[in-house]
Amino acid sequence: MGLFGTMYIGYSGVCSMTTGMRVVADNITNLNTIGFKESRYEFMDELVSATQRVFDPEEGIGSFIKSIRTIYSQGGLSTTDIPTDLAISGKGFFIVEDEKGNIYYTRDGQFYINQVDDAHLALQNSFGMYLLGGAPDQTTADLTTLKPYLIPKTMDAKATSQIKAILTLDSRKPPNDKTLIEKYDAQANPSEPLTENNYDWVFDWSIYDSTGKPIDLKLYVDRGDSANKYEVLLALADPSMDGRGDGKLKGAFLYGELEFGGSGDVISANFYDVGIDGTLTPVDLKSTGKPQCNLNINGNEQPLTLDLGFTVNPDGSITKDPESIKMIANPFTQLSFTQDGYPEGLFDHIEIITEDGLIKAWYTNQKSIDVSRIFLADFSGYEDSLEKVDGNLFVTKAGAKPVIFAPSPGGRGRILSGALETSNVDLADEMVRLITLQRAFESNTRIITTADQMLEEFIRQR
């Protein structure tokens, strides 16, 4: 091959080591880049036969870079306590989409809540790409069904439709022969239809109408005409809000008679819709299971179910919950009260629930909605189908299709909220490679200078 060929061999080594140095330098400079996957240079020898020149076919003429391969091993996990920081433990890539509809894959889980229009927010990365997901109850997906799920900036108010209360009624009160219906008179006393001496106790409750406005209710309780009975009357705290008109029972909506057994549990119940003129319409508890009525608040009807911890079965028998209304020799007590209405709420924050990628948005009314479920893309065994682009992103090569899966604990990959995956670069390994490349570079330059000296000596002798 001669001295000139030897110099070219050294030159190929210099070029190869320079490329290797660039790969190592890129790895080291991205040591702190979130989700970065290190690259590995792969050298290959070059033979004369490959150049189709007339030399010994086993004679080497140097080296070149066969490929630069990305290593997809798991990086370390670093906690941040920011819910929108997401890390993948195991297999998979986040799927993101730009405004043009192009799909990218990444292990960089730094996402932010950005406003996308006047009414919605969305999870995006620093390039404005949307994090794709499925419906909250979705378990399987493909690229055609994934989309950027929007987070409403406000949650509409919800009218109360159910009240659940666990009450204790005092069995020591004496019976009386006059019912709450007979004592209630909104015409004689519009602001206080039932005066304090006309009932044994009252429970004050607050619910919401369809606009999210708080509405105060009262549940009056009074001893029945025997030692094992109590009656209840559900009414508006302000009878003037009753939109049905005027009448003796203005503001009263649901009347009930409860009978208790020796253990203090309900053994029978009768409830009635209260008409404004005093008419009582029986509630078919065998069909409804629980007492129901229609509130009328300033002309707007609002169906309401009262749950006192028992259900009337179709055969008339009663099934009670583990906690239900009781009559015992104790003072009147409200053990618990819940209602399903709420006012309008503004977006407050999101959180990723468990490790299955469910995104839940919380609002200022202390309520939440399930927004989306994050799905991941897996290329296990054919990661070379991915190609690096800027911004910790990957794209698929022609013909490559990912396996889309829902993350889960114990599955191929799970999502950790409040954490980020760090670079998988091992600095110690990179430093060893750097030193090795440096020595190889020096040796290849020595080949060139030595061949040059020999050539100079040859020319001098000529």
Determine the CATH superfamily of the largest domain. Answer: Flagellar hook protein FlgE
Q: Give the number of DSSP strands.
A: 34
Structural shape: rod-shaped
| Proportion of beta-strand residues | 35-45%
* Rg over CA atoms: 38 Å
Uncertain segments are none
Structural class: alpha+beta
Mean pLDDT: 90
Largest sheet: number of strands, sense, barrel closure: 12 strands, antiparallel
Count of separate DSSP helical elements: 4
Helix content: 10-25%
Tally of separate domains = 3
Explain the overall architecture:
The protein is an alpha+beta fold. The chain has three domains: 2-73 and 424-461; 77-118 and 349-421, no CATH class; 162-339, Sandwich (Tick-borne Encephalitis virus Glycoprotein, domain 1). It contains four helices and 34 strands. Strands 5, 6, 9, 10, 12, 26, 27, 28, 29, 30, 31 and 32 form a twelve-stranded antiparallel β-sheet that branches. Helix 1 (2-29) packs antiparallel against helix 4. The protein is rod-shaped and about 140 Å long. The model has no long low-confidence stretch (mean pLDDT 90).
